[in-house]
Amino acid sequence: MTPTDTAQEKEDDSAFLPWWTGVSEISLYVNEQETENINNRFQAKYAYVPRRKVMLTLNPEPQDSNEFAPFMGDAIPMKVVAEISDEHCQVLLLDLGNLPSVYRYPNLVLSCKDKESHSSYSPVYGRLLIHRAVLAGLLKEEGESQVLPVKDVTDVEVPEYHAYEPAHISVKDLRSENLVLQGRLCTSRGMDGKNDICNEKKNEAECSWCVFMKSGPCYKSFSQWQGCVKDNKSDDAFIEKCADLTIAMKDCVEAHPEYYGAMANVDDDDDDDAMEGEIVNEGEEPAAESEVEEPVTAEGAAIQETQTQTQTQTQTQTQTQTQTQTQTQTQTQTQETQETQETQTQIQETQETQETQETQETATETPMKEETA
Length: 373
What we know:
InterPro entries: GCK_dom (IPR012891). The protein is an alpha+beta fold. Helices cover 39% and strands 18% of the residues. The protein has twelve helices and twelve strands. A hairpin with a 3-residue loop joins strand 6 (139-142) and strand 7. The two termini are 50 Å apart.
């Protein structure tokens, strides 16, 4: 293979990389007009005025990025709850509604003493400032995602917090003013702040199993298989049309046990033991089956429909007791586990169909040879 061919192959592979590859930040970016309105309404108390944005996640894991895919490029309303400040920083506490965020206290930093991120009082301190106000009883948490001011206070002394010295916090309740800001949800690489345009493509949220598969070394073979399933989800010949891609994906998974773990060691004749429970990150407890309510994806639905038809057509063929147990177990498992097991079942059915066809061809050829003799 020539260097040109290698470069072309890498370029072709890159087309299948999941969109979240290389994403370093997802935030709500405030446009120039909104920034001017904020600056006119809230006078900066400290020297450094950072870019007007609300960070939602930094160096996100694939599953975190996936949550924001359906909202990419949308203008998100941000309700202003309160203004909070101490001797080092000044922030607006915000209510983002149901928008996901990896941070507990969504906020927009108005000003702070230091610019450098390694400094103790850089814009990152904004979240810690809100947390200190909560610990001091100046803010109260209601539910899992809402923080509200108890009352207006000025220069209330709060104790030291880890390496941070005691501070004097002021809180001003702004809910009665009904201030609502707008932020454009985008990645840092895709945001055109000058024109208020997000160049990151909007995507459907993937199932967590799909995110896991696409984030590994078999992202290309899985994406090709997934595309075939979606293109043929209403076609009775789905298994036949996607057979080669299914086998290619299986071979890739088996070649990378360092990432896919138990999936790479599944025996074709022992599908009923494959991938019991969700695929979870190390140290993360798997959810109880009754708590998993993830919608079936298009490819999952296609597999279910086609598999039912195929099972009906092949009832006259020899089926092992393992296949029957697999069908029974699949009905009781979670939808994510269904996708994994159905893929394995599809692989086995494809192989059995090919073997059956070869047997039939051999059986047909034998009498012809005897007659010739």
